[in-house]
Write a structure and sequence with these properties.
It contains 8 helices and 9 strands. The chain is of the alpha/beta class. It has a single domain, classed as Alpha-Beta Complex (Spore Coat Polysaccharide Biosynthesis Protein SpsA, Chain A), CATH 3.90.550.10. Strand 1, helix 1 and strand 2 form a beta-alpha-beta unit.
């Protein structure tokens, strides 16, 4: 197997973490749990499992700063540890563990970034209400139109990056904290001239724990998209 690391951010995911790690065990991939000092004890569970499972390591962060900073810290650790491929994945089983191998295969077969896409043929969502669907589909359409890119699912958080991408794009310049981080990462990858593909996935809404979506995260994404486009037009991206 290639040297691949799944970055798994956790904040109050004690109900999901052990089940997720055991579900990932047969895949033969390394997993880096990134815990932002969860008050529910998720970090302690991660440490216990890391002692038992040799494919698991843990990165503890002092406080909750958002999805973006957590992933960036994970990317840097994975690169420092020699990873050739770095994956993003949710801990709440919204992303099916077996699909991680499909994203990795897309990169092994030539893609620089593989996006798990809900909105291409073969993809979809389960257990979502109408409001959630409208927000998600609308957000992707908005980002696609403003940024002028052809991809259907720009807000998804199930991805596989080739090492060269993360080394090339300026991780220090990424300031997005919420789901705008997903849009920005893909857009910077495209602007750097890398190849991006979409791999169909089915996204299943979580059954345990609490969603991290908030009004602040939503508004950040609304503002960040035109800011990225403007930076690109000015040659700053």
């Amino acid at each position: 197997m290639p040297n691949a690391v799944i970055c798994l951010p956790t904040y109050n995911e004690r109900e999901n973490l052990e089940s997720m790690l055991r579900a990932l065990a047969p895949l033969g991939l390394n997993v880096l749990v990134i815990d932002d000092n969860s008050p529910d004890g998720t970090g302690q569970i991660a440490d216990r499992l890391a002692e038992e499972l040799d494919f698991v390591s843990v990165l503890h962060r002092a406080q909750k700063e958002g999805l973006g900073p957590a992933y960036l810290a994970g990317f840097r650790r994975a690169l420092a540890d020699g990873a050739d491929y770095v994956l993003e994945m949710d801990c709440d089983f919204s992303h099916k563990p077996a699909d991680a191998v499909r994203l990795l295969s897309a990169c092994e077969n030539g893609a620089d970034l593989a996006l798990g896409s809900r909105y291409v043929d073969g993809g979809g969502t389960e257990n979502w209400g109408l409001t959630r669907r409208i927000i998600s589909v609308g957000g992707s359409l908005y980002a696609r139109a403003v940024l002028g890119v052809p991809f259907h699912d720009l807000t998804g958080g199930f991805k596989c990056y080739r090492r060269a991408v993360l080394e090339r794009i300026d991780l220090d310049a990424i300031q997005s904290k919420g789901y705008a981080f997903q849009i920005e990462g893909t857009y910077r990858t495209l602007r750097a001239g890398f190849t991006v593909v979409e791999v169909p996935i089915t996204f299943v809404d979580r059954t345990a724990g609490q969603s991290k979506m908030s009004r602040t995260i939503f508004l950040e994404a609304v503002k960040k998209v035109p800011a990225l486009r403007l930076a690109a037009l000015r040659g700053r991206l």
